[in-house]
């Protein structure tokens, strides 16, 4: 099979970088929301145990 001669990366790099940036920003936003006070006490939160341990340590238990 012959090599692909079109300048694929040259044409697609803005879309690839934009997609990577969007995923990074959404990930950071999701993490900050999960650690916020609204969702901190929800047992379904993946950070629940970590947040409760920090809360108890802060209170001096």
Automatic annotation (TrEMBL):
Cellular component GO terms held in the UniProt record: proton-transporting ATP synthase complex
Coiled-coil annotated residue ranges, if any: none
A GO molecular-function descriptor: proton-transporting ATP synthase activity, rotational mechanism
InterPro entries noted in UniProt: ATP_synth_F0_jsu
Name of the protein this chain belongs to: Atp18 subunit J of the mitochondrial F1F0 ATP synthase
Protein's organism: Mycoemilia scoparia
